[in-house]
Amino acid sequence: MPLLEFKGIEKRFGPRDEVPVLRGIDLTIEDGEFVAIFGPSGSGKSTLLNIAAGLDTRYSGSAKLRDKDLRALSDAARTELRRQTVGMVFQMFHLVPDWTVEANVALPSLFGPPSERASQRAHEVLAKVGLAGFEKRKPTELSGGQRQRVAVARALFSSPPLLLCDEPTGALDNETGASVLSLFRSIHEETRAAFVVVTHDERVASMAGRVVTLGDGRVARDERREVRA
């Protein structure tokens, strides 16, 4: 059973759905894969990621996560499946500026059963991303790279089998972006969670074991490659 499966995904935008973005995407992601969804701006990469996370349900075709049809689920069931299965990392971090780093990382705990381990788990994942001791700081006190590491820690909080990353280095300089990519590689090797990383950056794509290139709303190429050290 695939972790994530798209069949015939079509998506249109505009007042009358007159602008096609995805034109029949067939794609399967297995447990433990590291996949880069590669292509230029406007090729539908982020749209596909939002469909994978169950954040967008206005499309044609079928999107399944753990063999559950995302569009067939209720909002509550879709939210719970996402909480248990998916961690998300965004280009602009999406941290709550007035909350501490610890509270931002523990955010997923607010959507599940009450847990006395939320603080302990936040400390654990912050240490994993190299931010032990930063728990009581605010995001405004951190550099861009540190804020992205907080976002990664939040994505790891629930130990999800799938991490969806939308242009995770797009707001970072080259050196900081390379540091975040190195972090992704080490997390993947340690956890064997599946990574799906949307990017237009060849540096990001080069670290993936599989690169799916989108063009004109379709899968133009799907290739496996040797990962560069």
Question: Could you walk me through the main structural features you see in this protein, from its secondary elements to its overall organization?
Answer:
The structure is a single chain. The protein has 229 residues and is of the alpha/beta class. Helix content is 31%, strand content 27%. It contains 7 helices and 10 strands. The strands form 2 sheets. The protein has a 6-stranded mixed sheet. Helix 4 (118-128) packs across helix 5. The radius of gyration is 17 Å and the shape is globular. It starts with a strand and ends in a 5-residue tail after the last strand. The mean pLDDT is 92.
Order of helices and strands: EEEHEEHEHHHEHEHEE
Strand content: 25-35%
Query: Low-confidence parts, pLDDT < 50 over ≥5 residues?
Result: none
Total of helices: 7
Shape: globular
DSSP strand tally: 10
Which range best describes the helical content: under 10%, 10-25%, 25-40%, 40-55%, 55-70% or over 70%?
Answer: 25-40%
Helix-strand category: alpha/beta
Mean pLDDT: 92
Largest sheet: 6 strands, mixed
Radius of gyration: 17 Å
Q: Termini separation (Å)?
A: 30 Å
Strand order within the widest beta sheet: 6-7-8-3-9-10
Main attributes of the structure:
229 residues, 4-stranded antiparallel beta sheet, 31% helix, alpha/beta, 27% strand
Outline the fold blueprint.
Blueprint: E1 4-13, E2 19-29, E3 34-38, H1 45-52, E4 60-65, E5 68-69, H2 75-85, E6 86-89, H3 101-105, H4 118-128, H5 144-156, E7 162-166, H6 174-191, E8 194-199, H7 202-205, E9 210-215, E10 218-224
Parallel strand pairs: 3-8, 3-9, 6-7, 7-8
Antiparallel strand pairs: 1-2, 1-4, 4-5, 9-10
